[in-house]
């Protein structure tokens, strides 16, 4: 960000010394975490030829290298079967919205997509996805209130296979990763999906809110145990949250973001691009 | 109780005592550990620095350094200061007539759930709450509030489908309320990002129209560094009277509470501790202080030490 650059630059054009604490402060401000921030500073202290002019760029380079050069993309649907995508995460991160946005994106690319409203728990969660489906003209398979979410996913899967959909996107209820029985429910959904296609779900996406601090890593760890994650969607990137937690998740778990949510509209959704992401971190 | 952080500091000081002297640098090391603990709990960088600066003198007093467990003493001092700051001049809700409560916050923070929880709580206290759905943005937001209202048997005002003007909706709701025999109205608003000036301005207009007694900022306990930005922006726009911290049933350390309290001076009034509507209660500063310092948290500090 320009402010950061200017601050460091004015600082360093006056003195030749780099204010490492200032660098750490900026990295921490992006929710990269203090340990990682100190690590980056230590790493940069070692490098030669570092000055005010290239400090920001060097920092970005370190961060860029943490991510794969190309974001994970969704695999192609298996021959004659729908590609099943499971959308999971803690409460309120943007799962339902992201499920709708992703369905919209795939549909725009010419694919046939079915949504499954498997959050039968939260008040009006089904209506919420239904309303997106209506607006975007996407077929939807709905669960009844309090219906077992695994059985909703199973029924949706049956429909997707029968009717030749290429993608099935299952929206699930928000759950805190500390709730053992709810995490177990996710494992059950996963097993149930595998009944009609041993390789399903083909992609499990964890939705993380960009405003989240250090807890995002704990979320990723626990969800990964319950249902192995393929990638992460970082939402609310249009806010002041930088989503620096993606760095921690990448570092520790080697799970990269695949999409970013950038607003409340259907089009506010983009594939993760590490260069753009890192440039917005600082 | 003060397990990890305290143990770590005790070790630091024990080593020092062996050497027979405690230097500036050793003290700096201890404070560094505290600072790390706060930052890892998501306390904002500037807030952590300022807070430590303020508490430093006390924590480094002679009695502390001479005590058998100086680390434990220091942690206790920080813990008590955090609790004091978080508790501060906490007061209940101002419900003098016309009692109106506006609920605001970022997308997905827990506003709608909190509105219903608060209504239930007030109802159980013998008041007659009314809920008003002022979220015209999120798909099915009105349905969500209406479903929760029905669960707790509280009347709810539902704007006509397609309504776009929140102030007009609020005006209609005030009309409706005359027919309802309620004693306190709770207005649930749409989530928004604090950098979205148009939406913040909409909130400002609603606030100006309602002149609510209470404007509660709902914030997720897992919020990171921009808790400061969020709290300041909402506070400037709609003069927040209290903060509600949600999703405390998770394992987020909740440093955002300290950040928001520090920069706005506004009390944290309630905490949300689950998705169910009765999982809600007054905020407990002491418990929050323990949580921020990671007490009893085995994976916390030592893992990285
Ligand atoms: N500004 C912004 N808001 C978003 C974004 N993604 C989702 N939201 C909003 O965040 C709030 C929560 O979104 P949902 O999709 O309902 O989240 P969820 O994870 O399904 O929530 P639960 O099912 O209750 O756990 C809504 O107000 C959405 O409009 C985004 O990228 N930017
Ligand atoms: N575990 C837990 N979940 C909560 C708590 N409070 C709210 N939630 C959940 O968080 C999610 C979002 O809650 P909402 O009340 O819809 O949040 P909101 O702020 O109204 O969201 P928008 O109107 O979209 O901005 C839902 O899944 C709630 O059930 C809490 O204290 N603990
Ligand atoms: Mg949802
Ligand atoms: Mg809401």
UniProtKB/TrEMBL annotation, chain A:
Instruction: Provide the topology term for how it sits in the membrane.
Output: Peripheral membrane protein
| A single MF term (Gene Ontology) | signal recognition particle binding
Domain of life of the organism encoding this protein: Bacteria
Q: Keywords for this entry?
A: Cell membrane, Cytoplasm, GTP-binding, Hydrolase, Membrane, Nucleotide-binding, Receptor
- What InterPro entries does this protein's entry cite? AAA+_ATPase, P-loop_NTPase, SR_rcpt_FtsY, SRP/SRP_N, SRP54_GTPase_dom, SRP54_N_sf
Known Pfam families for this protein? SRP54
Q: Can you say where in the cell this protein is located?
A: Cell membrane
A single Gene Ontology CC annotation of this entry is: plasma membrane
Q: What sections of the sequence does the record tag as coiled-coil? A: none
Ranges for domain SRP54-type proteins GTP-binding come to 82-282
Name the principal localization, coarsely classed. Answer: membrane
Gene Ontology biological process = SRP-dependent cotranslational protein targeting to membrane
Record domain AAA+ ATPase: where: 81-238
Q: What does the similarity note say? A: Belongs to the GTP-binding SRP family.
By what name is this protein known?
A: Signal recognition particle-docking protein FtsY
- Origin species, per record, is Akkermansia muciniphila
